[in-house]
Structure formats: C-alpha cells, structure tokens
Amino acid sequence: MAVESISSDHHPTLRHGERQIIGAELQQVLTVLVDLTLIGKQAHWNVVGPHFRSLHLQLDELVEAWRDAADTVAERAVALGQVPDGRSGTVAARSPLAPLPADQLRDHRVVADFTRLLTDATGVVRERLAHVEDVDPVTADLLHAVIAKLEEQLWMVRVQAG
User: Fold this and answer.
1) pLDDT in the model for residue 10
2) What is the CA radius of gyration of the chain?
3) Of the four listed, 40, 126, 134, 150, which is most buried by Cβ atoms within 10 Å?
4) What CA–CA distance (Å, rounded) separates 55 from 90?
C-alpha cells in the first residue's frame, strides 16, 4: 500500500507566498514571546526587595502565559506550512527586546523594566498584525488575542509603580 504524501504547498485559501509572509510575521512574534519567557525567568530568579514575593509569583504567571502564547503562535505557523524557530540562538540574535542585567534586580526596577518590555513587545506584535490583518483573518485574530493579553499584563505590572 503506497503512502500518499501531503503537499506542504496546499492550503485551501492562502497561496504559498502569502503563507511565507505570514510565517515571517509569526516568527517575529514567536521570537519576542520566547524572549519574554527567558527574561521573565531571569527576573523571577533575581528579584529582591520588599515586593519580592508578589513579583516572584507574578513573574511565574507571566512566563506561563507567554509560553502558552508562543505555543499558539508556533502552531499557527506550522498549520500554514512554516517551520517556527524558537532556538535560543535565534531568539538571542533576532529579538528586539533589551536584556536585563545579569545581577540582582530591585523590585521597583523589575516593575520599570517589565513596563518597558511589555510596551515594546506589544508594539512589535501590533506592527506584525498590521502586515497580516488584510491577508489572513485567522492569524490576525490570534495576534489580536496576544496583544490583548500583553496589554492586560502591562496594566497589571504598571500599576505597581505607584
């Protein structure tokens, strides 16, 4: 019995070129989300100060949400016939997010840094959304959800600045 191969260039409504463009946009979002998870764990391990416990726990919640979002973004790319790349080298080379210092981080500094990081990440995803919105409503909906979650997280972090 012969195994029928499935063409990787088949999609019911999107042409190959469109899927490649969407895949490139999804890759950039994936890179940012994976980088947020790495930066989040770095801060989680190194936060100090009177608000240590609440930030330590909140950072774990944020990292989990970013991992879930990254998984959803990567799976959308695969569904479109793309190959997502979440390797550390790729993320380090391509992420536009500023890294944290390799040192202890005062709690007020963590709040300020994550206010900036979440603002920057939201901007990246909004820019990527603008490139796919008219081409693929499914991917656009996914990116709208990512933006909504990032903005909610930004609010939750920012209000701690006092």
Assistant:
1) 58
2) 18
3) 150
4) 28
Q: Could you read off the pLDDT of 134-143 as tens digits, one per residue? A: 999 999 999 9
CA 122 to each of CA 2, 48, 114, 155: distance values in angstroms, whole numbers, following the listed order: 48, 26, 12, 12
Neighbours of 15 (CB within 10 A): 11
Domain boundaries of the chain, sorted by first residue: 16-161
Residue 147 tokens, joined: 């933006």
Choosing among 3.40.640.10, 1.20.1260.10, 1.10.357.140, 1.10.10.10, the CATH entry for 16-161 is 1.20.1260.10
pLDDT in tens, 105-114: 999 999 999 9
Q: Cβ distance 143 to 125 under 8 Å?
A: yes
How long is the chain?
162
